Amino acid sequence: MATKKEAFRKAFVASIPILCSYLFLGMAYGLLMQEQGFGWLESLITSAVVYTGAFQFVLITFLSSGASLLTVAATALFMNSRQSFYALTFLDDFKHMDRRKLYMIHSLTDETYAVNCTLESLPPEERRETMFYLAVLSHIYWTAASALGGMLGQIIPFDLTGIDFCMTALFVTIFIDQWETAKTHTPALAGLCVAVLALAIFGANGFMLPALLATSGILIFAGRKEVQA
Fold first, then answer.
1. Integer Cα distance of 46 and 147 in angstroms
2. Among 41, 56, 74, 111, which is 20 to 30 Å from 83 by CA?
């Protein structure tokens, strides 16, 4: 019992930066959902079930524009495929977490991955408990903030002009962070060039899926060539 209490305490302390981030981004998501006609309950359910952060902002556009299920599914797959690679880092930990491993896979995000990487010095059992509590707390933060944003949007009239830029800012921040830490800038440059070309060909409403497919194909081909070399 003492180990679990200590693990929860460490998880809570480690989750404070995530709380600060999710509070504002989650509320922004809830406000944008409310602006598109979705209530706080829809925001809460989507955040609890989908729980993909950046993709949820894209999903607002898909829901309001009536995008096809194929476009939604493919975009979700490509946008969140990086988390599959994140999970490879913790395969051994997840394997020893019994039924909780399914939840750990579902709740792994950019933020929880970054914090989990700082827990390597902990004993295995305590590290796994801390990782689990961190995942639960982060999930609660995001879901509660999304619902709170939806409620505030219904109660208090907000001028939401420009708030949708938070999604752009989020992607720019992620892009800059990856640019500074990546060993090669080829994937970033490929994505930029393909996105601009697809935008010119397919327009603003139809460029995303072709751009994602083309970029993924280029990177897979380049990766194979590099392995062969």
1. 10
2. 41
